[in-house]
Design brief:
mainly alpha
Length: about 210
Amino acid sequence: MNIQRECKGRFVYLLSNYSYSNQTVSDTLWEEIETRYSEPHCAYHNLNHLYQMLGEFEKVEAQLEDSEMVLFALYYHDLVYDPKSKTNEEERLLDLEIRKERINLCLDHILATKSHRLGDNSNTDTKYFLVMNLSILGSEENQYLEYTKNIRKEYSNYSDEDYRKGRIQVLDHFSETIRLYQTGYFFDQYEMRSRYNVKTEIHSLQKR
């Protein structure tokens, strides 16, 4: 299995649905994604993360109202932004001549992952996308431990104490959420395991 090839293949296929896209455009956009997700500080938010989310996406793709915008959000949601541009992902989609209202849907999906909260007007696709991004919380013990180690690496510029406080705050938010997974499939698959993992990590951090 070649994760880079799998991620690129799905992205290129997605772009093939747009007449403005061609081989040069596809290569340029993919190279940007691959470069950003392969930067040294990306211990967790990297191509492995994209691949894991693609696996979750494929399980529910048929249930999505606009699966293409969910897929674009998947590829762009953790891209490091140019500080001079507030809307890097919006510019890329505009270049493909995608309608503005569809782009706004994609941006809503991405913004949901920044706060881990759903707005009052969030549509079903946004709910699916957010729980795809949170599915790692429901992974098996060894995978979850690897995830926590990689997250710590991404915040290596923080002291142990500052990281501990910040991480507990994030985990407390998850722990206090009435329902982490707002869709039936993901709730059944990951809710109980996620709550166990989150509480276990909180206890571990509190002992340090």
